[in-house]
From TrEMBL, chains A, B:
Keywords attached to this entry: DNA-binding, Transcription, Transcription regulation
Record-annotated HTH marR-type domain positions: 6-138
Gene source species: Catenulispora subtropica
Alphabetized SUPFAM superfamilies for the sequence: Winged helix' DNA-binding domain
Gene3D superfamilies from the UniProt entry: Winged helix-like DNA-binding domain superfamily/Winged helix DNA-binding domain
Name of the protein in question: MarR family transcriptional regulator
Length: 156, 156
DNA sequence: TATTGTTATACTCTATAACTATA
DNA sequence: TATAGTTATAGAGTATAACAATA
């Protein structure tokens, strides 16, 4: 690949993201989980017990997608479903002991990955970069048009 | 969506990218092309004529994917295929007059979008951000393991 | 009637395998 | 034999529609 496109912001964002995702995947490989699955564990490790729909909203995914995510984690014995006694339509999803261990180790690996990824930067650059990125990620970025509320394409 | 994940680098990169892509798509809407298609036009507007495979390499996509990309652009009369006289296996893909116009206008809209996206930043922040992003996007980010040459997942 | 989880289905994106025509 | 373009096909990933259980 040459670099006709490498000065384009979209290209840079996409490839920075791909690079980081690849690093994360590599780091989590020995744990046997994906970055996606780690993110789900993070969300499910909340103070209050979450239903599948609660977790789906937190992750920004469809509830049908959430079914598959929980299926995966349950197959690995990282989480378990139980019917909510308060509302028997709901599945409360909680981490198993194994899941809590995987979460802790995954978070450790994840932090290492972030650190390694930003290692080339000075602490000041690093801080500034994250601050800017937060702005750009939060920004709904709808400039000129007045669309009322189009649903965002959200992923963890 | 709440923000349990919003301090994670992966999340920030992904959502900054999604936001920018959405802005770009909105900006190009009146032109009737996608950001992807604009990137293909940029590549095909090279000094030397490119075959489909040349362009695919430049874009970092598979040659089968390239077929579809050229099909789309040809359907919109933005590019045209012609057999290479030197090697009749090759399709040289060139921009039509209409394609050149679309490219110019698309690039104008694209630059506006980049500018708007970075508008909240000071010029110094902007410059620093792009410089850092370039580093992170270029970085193959293979830290601890010595894999010889795994093919990257490339997209424009 | 509305909501939660589920399944079936479809759609997008992209890659692999196989075919053709050329070299 | 190898390469360029093409087609058919399959695999992720995710969404929509419909259904059962529950509210």
């Amino acid at each position: 690949m040459a670099d006709l496109l490498t000065s384009r912001l979209g290209y840079l964002l996409k490839h920075a993201q791909l690079n980081f995702a690849a690093s994360g995947a590599r780091a989590l490989e020995p744990l046997g989980i994906t970055g996606r699955q780690l993110a789900v564990l993070v969300v499910l490790d909340a103070a209050e017990p979450l239903s599948q729909l609660d977790a789906a909203r937190e992750l920004g995914v469809d509830r049908t997608t959430m079914v598959a995510l929980v299926d995966e984690l349950e197959a690995k014995d990282l989480v378990e479903r139980r019917r909510s006694p308060d509302d028997r339509r709901k599945n409360i999803v909680g981490l198993t002991a194994h899941g809590k261990k995987a979460l802790a180790e995954g978070e450790r690996l994840h932090k290492e990955t972030e650190k390694a990824f930003l290692a080339e930067l000075t602490p000041i650059e690093s801080e500034l970069f994250l601050r800017i990125l937060k702005k750009l990620a939060a920004d709904t970025a709808r400039e000129a048009d007045g669309e009322p509320d189009q649903d965002e394409n959200e992923n963890a």
